[in-house]
Structure formats: C-alpha cells, structure tokens
Specification:
The two termini are 15 Å apart. The chain has 307 residues and is α/β, with parallel strands linked by helices. It contains 9 helices and 13 strands. α2 crosses α3. The longest helix has 13 residues. The relative contact order is 0.13. It has a 7-stranded parallel sheet.
Amino acid sequence: MKSIIIYHSCFTSFGGVETFCVNLAHELKKHYDITFISTRFFPLVLEFDNAEILDTTKRYDADVVIFATAWGKLPQNIHGKKVIQMVHAQYDVAIAGWQFVYQRHTYTTHHVCVGNAVKESFERATPYRDAIVIPNLLKSDAILHPKPEPSNVLRLITASRFSREKGFDRMLKLGNLLIGEGVKFVWDVYGNYNSNYGKSIMRKASSSFRFHGYKKDVSKEVATSDYLVQLSDSEGFPYATYEALQQLTPVITTDFPSAKEQVDDGINGWILDFDLSDWKKILADKLILSKFEHKSTLNDWVKILEK
C-alpha cells in the first residue's frame, strides 16, 4: 500500500484547508497509508491515530507528499517520490491583501488547484503553468439530512471563520435590508467569535442573528435552513457552499470568481453583487433543490497519485 504524508503548517482550527485534509484522507484511506503532519494540531484532529507533530530532527519519507497549504515555511525534512503543492486561494488576492509570496518548495513536482478560478489566479501571480484542477472533495458517504416543513420565516445559516474578508459586514447589511423590507428571518451563525472583530459583529447584529460558536458538524443545521449565506470578498472553492449544496440547501454568495463554479444563479442559489444592490432577488420564491453533482471523485486523485 502506497504511503501519503499530508502536511499542514498549522492545523489548529477547522476551515477549508483542514476540511480538505480530512476529506481527502477519508476518501483515500482504504487505498493508501496516510499520515497527517503539522507543527500544531487542533484537539479534534488528535483523535486520529495517524496525526504526528513535526519533528524537525527527523527525516520523513513517503511515496507521495501533499503540502496542503503554501502558507508558512515548508519543512525540508519531508521527502516523497511525488510532492504535490495544493493551491486553495486566489493568490493575486492574497498578494494584494496580505503580502503573500509563493515560494515553490524545493521538492515540488506537481501543483493542484481546487478550482478553475484558483488556477487562473495562480497563473497570474506566479510563473508556473503546470497546475491541474481537482475541485475539493466531499465525503462520498456523507449523511444527507431530511428537509424541514415549509415556514414563513426565512431561515439563513452561515458557518465561517470570523474575519473581515469573510463578509460579516455585508451580512449585517443584508440583515438590515431584510428588516427594512419587513421580512421575518432567523440567521444562525457558527464559528469562533472570540476575537475583537467577532465580538464587534455580535454587538452590531440585530436580534434575528443567533451566534452559536464553533460546532464540529453543522450539516443537520445546514440541511434544515433555507439558504447558506457566504458573502466573502474572495474564495477559492469554498467548502461551506459546496457542503450546503450536497445537503440540497441552496446558497447565497457574493460574486467572487469561483462562485459560478458551484452556483447557477437563480437555480441552486443566488449570486449577489458585492454592494448587495441586487439583493431583492433572494425574496423570490425559495429555491428548492432535488439533485447534487460532485465536482470531483476519488478517481480524480487516484489518477495523479498513480501517474
């Protein structure tokens, strides 16, 4: 059985990169021997018997190494016959907003982008033209929860990291627009809000917002909502919206480049202008979904792992 090391520089919370790591391992574990390595681990990850804190004095070898993120200094003591660098973000956005600099690891043999918009951004921001696209994997055996009875109250949900680029100020604006229009709604928000920014958002939010903190699995709550809302400045290939669509819950997003890779406006969700000037279209009849199609499968990964 081939061995795979999945390295993440700091596995201390659950966001898109962490979900990618867990889902990839879940789908591949019957066919490959997988080890997680990181400098730090979120306690939930330590439940896995294949998670190891990086030892800088030790040499690690595997058939395949997957660097799950390019943030932080990548270790030079992890070696593989094949070394895959994941690209999750809009690199030109990261460069502009956070002075991010992509430095290709010495041993990298492949780049894998999680979406077409990410690949286009990667090629604008770097000199590399060798990347392939494999959209983020979902768990093929995910539990699909039953839908609720119809309600005259609009049920919204957001599960996100609390940071400005995730669009929380737009969420508050949309909430106020709904109130001004006389729309009855509840908006459940999941995520760690202990930062100063998170606390400021809570103080400014109307009573229709309900803040729940972090929860490991919100799939049932997503399934019983009318829409999942993600009003970010930018996203690579967001798991929050993708997992919602898997639960047959339509989504409301802003018009970041990758939105159209998941959302067909007016069919399985709504794509809003960043200034929310077209927000009233979400007041049309609630969208009802009956099918979902995975954008990638285990076989897409087997092709590159076995090539």
